[in-house]
Amino acid sequence: MAYDVVIAGKFYMNYSFQDLEVGINAGRIAKIGKNLKGGTRKEVEGAILPAGTDIHVHFRDPGETEKEDFRSGTVSAAFGGTTTIFDMPNNRVPILDYASFGDKLSSVRNRAYVDFGLYSMFNGTNADIIDPRSSSIKIYLGGSTNSLPVGNFATKSIETIKSLKVPVIFHGEDAACLAAHRREEVHSLAEHDLSRPEVCETTSAKTVLDLGIPNSVMGHISTPESLSIIGEKIRGEVTPHHLLLNSSMDLGPWGKVNPPVRDRSTQERNLQAYLDGRFSILSSDHAPHTEHDKEEFFQAPSGIIGVETRIPLMLALVQKKVLDLRVLYDTAIKNPPELMSLNKGKIEVGAWADFFSFRFSSMERINQERLHSKTPITPFNEAYAVFPDNVALHGEFIVESGELVEDRAGQHVRDL
Fold first, then answer.
1. CB 297 within 8 A of CB 253
2. What pLDDT was estimated at residue 2?
3. Which of 65, 147, 148, 407 shows a CA-CA span of 20 to 30 A to 91?
4. Which are the catalytic amino acids?
5. Is this structure's pTM higher than 0.85?
6. pLDDT band with cut points at 50, 70 and 90 for residue 147
7. Mean pLDDT of 318-329
């Protein structure tokens, strides 16, 4: 058999690195072995992992493209070893129905550098008009940026959502609890934590569990108590900032996020839960804002960028022997596409040929001026990271030797 491309290198397969050759046809893995013949041959140095999938990004496009757009957001994803993203629906005009979904899809379709899916938002009354092309449904149990909380769940609406047979991701902060703890102004990370305390998250965890919607995910969990409540019936998602940042750090408005980064003790227990393999999914919750937005803490919107640093930060923990590579692989690479019914995240015949290569020896400190978001300021500036050298999408390299080489090759996941 002849192949379009044969990539040779040290691939991560069955939880170990193996010297293999991967033959690729029409963007998918056609053969795994050695001494494969035919096609363009590429020898790749370093370690090769299947590329990541990030199910939780806010690229602000359309509506707030001064903060981010699909070009800058998907380029950032590529440089972070992520070749598939799923964009949240809380745009300035929220994605609630056929028309808003279609408008967004038309707007972003030809500007993506990696593959993408789009969410729709359930607002409590719109279950019958959610576009069936939606990759997933987002439900806000508490208010956040460009969103209103859902307070009542009619049985008919829940059944309609179930009939769509797509994952449902919850913003896990209880609205009544947030109202009870609301402060007129918050001026520090610790005050922000007090204004949206852990009890608001754990209360919403009970709601998520009680609703019993199949394929539910509790988003951006900030305290391991939530994991204890949802158990194994609900997938738990976590972000690097809820694993590595805490309210005692001098992060200013750039560390303000919903739910808040917690005190050091909670953060360390959340990290330990991740290291122990208790979380299902690692996402970035990439949520950019402009420098003007973040000038004053009390009026700054919540959100931290992270689609480019999600995997590199964790690879540095692997290099430091803090994190087992298997946990990172499961949560950032294998489980997210499985949730979204995508044949990605594995070295297997038939899977999409999305990879990235890296060298643990290239661990460096993050320089935010080299990141690719429109406003690249990150609370992880100067943190250690291991960035990819090369990134392949559908068997074609879109990043080579740290340089972008392919233009807008990403596709809507429903077109794959």
1. yes
2. 84
3. 407
4. 285
5. yes
6. confident
7. 98
**pLDDT value of residue 255:** 98
Whose tokens are 């209103």? That residue is: 148
| CA nearest neighbour of 376 among 92, 12, 67, 86 | 67
Structure-derived torsion over alpha carbons of residues 194, 368, 311, 357, reported in degrees to the nearest 10: 180
Tokens in use for 370?
């080299």
Token pair listed for 301: 């919107």
> How large is the greatest C-alpha to C-alpha distance in the chain, in angstroms?
68
What the block records as the tokens of 360 is 């643990």
Q: Which two tokens stand for residue 197?
A: 């305390």
CB 85 within 8 A of CB 73: yes
- Residue by residue, what is the 3-state secondary structure of the chain? CCCCEEEEEEEEECCEEEEEEEEEECCEEEEEECCCCCCEEEEEEEEEEECEEEEEECCCCCCCCCCCCHHHHHHHHHHCCEEEEEECCCCCCCCCCHHHHHHHHHHHHHHCCCEEEEEEECCCCCHHHCCCCCCEEEEECCCCCCCCCCCCCCHHHHHHHHHHCCCEEEECCCHHHHHHCCCCCCCCHHHHHHHCCHHHHHHHHHHHHHHCCCCEEECCCCCHHHHHHHCCCCEEEECHHHHHCCCCCCCHHHHCCCCCCCCHHHHHHHHHHHHCCCCCEECCCECCCCCCCCCCHHHCCCCECCCCCHHHHHHHHHHCCCCCHHHHHHHHHHHHHHHCCCCCCCCCCCCECCEEEECHHHCEECCHHHCCCCCCCCCCCCCEECCCCEEEECCEEEEECCEECCCCCCCEHHHC
